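dumping this here so i dont lose it
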């Protein structure tokens, strides 16, 4: 859990470059997580904290909480 802030920052940087969040497998590669269950647990924590949500087609998306500070668009810090 202590790495969630750096994970969120990496996801924000990715979103700023690609305007979409990566798949679970790509998140694992991006963050150096070795299993999909590790990725799922981290995503669940970020969802619970209000930074991520799922779209109706099951893709990850930033929430209004996270974009309120424009951090998803600017790729600057958490």
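and the seq i came up w/
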């Amino acid at each position: 859990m202590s790495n969630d802030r750096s994970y969120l920052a990496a996801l924000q940087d990715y979103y700023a470059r690609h305007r979409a969040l990566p798949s679970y497998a790509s998140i694992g590669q991006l963050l150096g997580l070795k299993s999909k269950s590790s990725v799922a647990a981290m995503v669940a924590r970020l969802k619970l904290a209000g930074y991520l949500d799922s779209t109706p087609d099951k893709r990850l998306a930033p929430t209004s909480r996270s974009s309120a500070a424009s951090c998803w668009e600017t790729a600057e810090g958490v």
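Residues 4-18 form the longest helix (15 residues).
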